[in-house]
């Protein structure tokens, strides 16, 4: 009798176990599906920089124990597999590297001389893009090869070239789906194992390019098209004097410059396409490894791609280059419409951009018009 009871008890336990398993099986399968869906969503929408890239000690973020290699080792490294046609030769790479070192030194010297590296100036990290996969950091200065490098950073964010070439989405908006806007602390920590770069161009060429792209060729009813109408209403002078006022619906360059200067004097935020990049990227508050210039961009970006080992991901293409004699002729024509006082005001607005990156304004004074009450001397 005792053995029978024991057998019945064991049978009851088995039945109970199987019933519990049958009851829990659907929930187990559901949890597995949710887990797979989470992983799929994370991998398809993940960002390349977040706080989890660092570890914390007493609430302070620390980057992984990794530092950039020395310049000598870097040079050996990039030429290990230097079989690509677009790579610089060893001699050219060293030549451009020396140029980059001179630019870094000049930037540090000017920052110190002007006091822009002091604690009284605030650092801004809002416009930086940090790619943790390839260890590169870029401050996106608009109208300075930004189209090309926004495309490159989207490639590095694992968007396919086919998708980028056909999509109607704004490249910056695509990028910001992958690259979060970092804090100053996050940016400085990420710099410990990354190559940080920015691209600059002559401030007045950049302003003319922004005017042509965003004002003259503004999309109808867009933000900049509406801005243009406001500028015309405020700055276009209508009088009986000859010559008659221009018939163009968009602002003339001198009207646009008057608007930009007045906005700056009123201390209102400037549009990101013509904000001084000294304020946009605060280059005196962060260390830069590579400073590319629009004037030498072909070699400079090849150097950067090679140094960062990006040759399998991006190509040294230059989209919307805005370079050449025709472009320079257009720029000269635009500035020939300005008065000397307007050029003075523009230099005052962009003076740190001029000083930090060794640009001059002298040639522009040769083409502007004298003020009505003075002559250029």
UniProtKB/TrEMBL annotation:
Pfam families on file: Sulfotransfer_2
Highest taxon, organism lineage: Eukaryota
Localisation: Golgi apparatus membrane
GO biological process, one term: carbohydrate biosynthetic process
Sorted UniProt keywords: Carbohydrate metabolism, Glycoprotein, Golgi apparatus, Membrane, Signal-anchor, Transferase, Transmembrane, Transmembrane helix
Enzyme Commission code: 2.8.2.-
GO molecular function: sulfotransferase activity
Main location: Golgi
Bilayer topology term: Single-pass type II membrane protein
CC terms in the record's Gene Ontology section: Golgi membrane
Family to which this protein belongs: Belongs to the sulfotransferase 2 family.
Name of the protein described by the UniProt record: Carbohydrate sulfotransferase
Lineage per the UniProt record: Eukaryota, Metazoa, Ecdysozoa, Arthropoda, Hexapoda
């Amino acid at each position: 009798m005792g053995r029978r009871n024991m057998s019945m008890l064991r049978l009851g336990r088995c039945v109970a176990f199987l019933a519990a398993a049958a009851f829990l099986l659907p929930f187990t399968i559901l949890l597995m599906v949710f887990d797979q869906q989470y992983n799929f969503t994370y991998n398809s929408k993940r960002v390349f920089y977040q706080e989890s890239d660092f570890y914390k000690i007493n609430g302070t973020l620390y980057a992984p124990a990794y530092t950039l290699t020395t310049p000598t080792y870097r040079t050996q490294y990039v030429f290990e597999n230097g079989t690509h046609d677009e790579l610089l030769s060893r001699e050219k790479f060293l030549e451009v590297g020396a140029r980059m070192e001179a630019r870094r030194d000049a930037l540090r010297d000017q920052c110190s001389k002007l006091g822009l590296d002091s604690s009284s100036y605030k650092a801004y990290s809002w416009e930086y893009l940090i790619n943790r996969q390839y260890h590169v950091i870029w401050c996106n200065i608009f109208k300075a090869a930004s189209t090309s490098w926004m495309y490159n950073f989207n490639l590095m964010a694992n968007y396919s070239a086919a998708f980028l070439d056909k999509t109607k989405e704004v490249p910056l908006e695509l990028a910001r789906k992958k690259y979060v806007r970092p804090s100053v602390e996050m940016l400085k920590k990420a710099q410990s194992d990354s190559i940080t770069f920015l691209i600059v161009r002559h401030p007045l060429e950049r302003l003319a390019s922004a005017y042509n792209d965003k004002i003259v060729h503004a999309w109808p009813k867009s933000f900049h098209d509406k801005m243009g109408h406001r500028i015309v209403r405020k700055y276009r002078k209508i009088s009986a004097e000859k010559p008659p006022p221009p018939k163009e619906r968009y602002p003339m360059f001198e009207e646009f410059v008057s608007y930009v200067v007045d906005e700056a004097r009123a201390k209102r935020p400037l549009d990101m396409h013509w904000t001084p990049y000294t304020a946009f990227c605060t280059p005196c508050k962060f260390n830069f490894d590579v400073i590319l210039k629009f004037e030498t961009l072909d070699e400079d970006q090849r150097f950067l791609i090679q140094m960062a080992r990006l040759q399998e991901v991006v190509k040294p293409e230059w989209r919307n280059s805005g370079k050449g004699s025709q472009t320079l002729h257009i720029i000269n024509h635009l500035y020939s419409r300005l008065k000397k006082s307007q050029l003075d005001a523009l230099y005052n607005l962009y003076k740190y951009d001029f000083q930090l990156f060794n640009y001059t304004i002298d040639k522009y004074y040769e083409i502007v018009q004298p003020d009505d009450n003075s002559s250029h001397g």
